[in-house]
Amino acid sequence: MNKEKIDRINFLAHKSKTPEGLTEEEKNEQAVLRKEYITEWRRGMIETLENTYIVEPDGTKHKVEPLENKH
Q1: Measured between alpha carbons, how far is residue 6 from residues 12, 15, 44 in Å?
Q2: d(CA 25, CA 10)
Q3: What is the pTM of this model?
Q4: Terminal CA-CA length for the chain
Q5: The dihedral of CA 43, 44, 47, 52: what is its sign?
Q6: Angle at 38 between CA 51 and CA 22, to 5 degrees
Q7: Can you point out the beta strands (E) in 1-71?
Q8: Phi–psi pair at 55, nearest 5 degrees
Q9: 32 in Cβ contact with 59 (< 8 Å)
């Protein structure tokens, strides 16, 4: 996710806490941006886990397997 989208997520989050609040259009935009952010975060986490190994005291390595996507 690029910096502009993250900045927009943060702007909308701060604006939602003001007395003015968000318009319906902004609420929809916020929901779409949050969903995109979470999807990218999950993808990055899975990629990290796919390259992560647990090294036992005896030196053997076990690959960490990510859980199936339940959402």
Answers
A1: 10, 14, 16
A2: 16
A3: 0.72
A4: 20
A5: negative
A6: 160
A7: 53-55, 61-63
A8: -100, 120
A9: no
Angle at 44 between CA 36 and CA 40, to 5 degrees: 5
Looking from the CA of 53 toward its CB, the CA atoms found within 13 Å total 7
- Give residues with Cβ within 8 angstroms of 37, minimum separation 6: 1, 5, 6, 9
Residue 69 pLDDT greater than 60, yes or no: no
Q: How far is CA 13 from CA 35, 36, 71, in A?
A: 14, 15, 24
Task: Give per-residue pLDDT as tens, 18-64.
Answer: 999 999 999 999 999 999 999 999 999 888 888 899 999 999 999 88
